[in-house]
Amino acid sequence: MDTKEISKCMRTQWAGRSIAFFEEIDSTNTMAKRLGEQGVPEGTLVIADCQTGGKGRRGREWFSPAGTGIWMTLLLKPRLLPDKVSAITLVAALSVCKAIRRVTGLETMIKWPNDLVMNGKKVCGILTEMSLEPDHIGYVVLGIGINVNQTEFPEELPHAWSLAMAAREAVLSVTGETGQDERTETEAGMFSREEIIARIWECFEEDYGIYLRTGDMSGLRGQYEAHLANLGCAVRVLAPSGEWAGAAEGIADSGELLVRDEAGVLRMVNSGEVSVRGVYGYT
Ligand code: BTN
Predict the structure, then answer these.
(1) Ligand 1 center to residue 128 CA distance, Å?
(2) What are the tens digits of pLDDT across the range 88-115?
(3) How far is the CA of 55 from the centre of ligand 1 (A)?
């Protein structure tokens, strides 16, 4: 993977028209923030083949080995109020879902707010960070990590999964445990990371355009909920005021999860305040 190969696939208007590619870097989010401080244009895309200090949410590390995954961050400069920024991660989750489907045929689902899962395991995580000026947003960095062609994960990541592993499992379930069918190797082989990257930013340009026009998730809610792994699931909400249980019914226009509690009251759950257990049983 290099800038030339990625650019060849790109058909976007502004997202990823300028690419900063690194064989190895600490974190594409950190680099995008550095570039944001230097005033590079909106739509600049930082991509790394390998991250030595990949960052996950809640201070976790993000496993980012060379040659297998997509580790990238887009620089955005939205004219939005800060409280509208967190929903950009929901928009991105939807775009990634659609792009993966288009390139690989695989159906990933969204674990609210923005993990992509298959068979109860995580294939993609999204980390959005922003810089705030006194009266406006300086910039937003939208970091996306996708496990694409890994064939295994370290023991300490029991919930991690890759698109290639999911494809192989799907082929085996069609061809039987022996995997004798000759389609196995080709169909469950390596996916083109360049193609997936290009399709993601095409989908994102469209979805983000809708989000900016409406100023909320109303124009994307139907599509988002169609991919929502939590839909109808029992969830436990770990709020600072105490833990409670309910069933997820969808998302609000603001992007919060709608959960009906055991008393029958529909409550809005904010990702900044709580963790939601369910789908693969971790928070
Ligand atoms: C999560 O914890 O689910 C979020 C993971 C986000 C990982 C991506 S990889 C590209 C970008 N650079 C980082 O350091 N993190 C994000």
Answers:
(1) 8
(2) 999 999 999 999 999 999 999 999 888 9
(3) 5
Q: Which residues contact 242 (CB under 8 A, 6 or more apart)?
A: none
147 lines ligand 1 (CB under 6 A): no
The pick from 24, 45, 60, 64 for probing ligand 1's pocket by mutation, whose C-beta has the most ligand atoms within 8 angstroms, reads 64
Closest Cα to atom 7, ligand 1: which residue?
A: 145
Give CA 202 to chain center in angstroms: 15
Per residue in 149-200, pLDDT (tens digit) is: 999 999 999 999 999 999 988 776 655 555 454 443 434 468 999 999 999 9
Determine the residue of 26, 55, 74, 162 to mutate for testing ligand 1's pocket, defined as the one with the most ligand atoms within 8 A of the Cβ atom: 55
Distance in Å, CA 151 to ligand 1 centroid: 20
> Does the beta carbon of 4 lie inside 6 Å of ligand 1?
no
Helices and strands of the chain, counted as H and E runs: 7, 12
Same domain, 60 and 196: yes
Instruction: Give me the sign of the Cα torsion angle 37, 39, 43, 46.
Output: negative
Q: What percent of the chain is modeled with pLDDT above 70?
A: 89
Distance 173 CA to ligand 1 centre (A): 31
CATH number at residue 174: 3.30.930.10
Could you list the residue range(s) of the whole structural domain that residue 168 is in?
3-225
pLDDT of residue 238: 83
Q: Give the Cα separation of 28 and 197 in Å (integer).
A: 14
Lowest mean pLDDT among 52-61, 128-137, 141-150: 128-137
Tell me, yes or no, whether 237 and 250 share the same domain.
Answer: yes
Identify the burial level of 60 via C-beta atoms within 10 angstroms of its C-beta, where 0-12 means exposed, 13-18 middle and 19 or more buried. Answer: exposed
Overall number of domains in the chain: 2
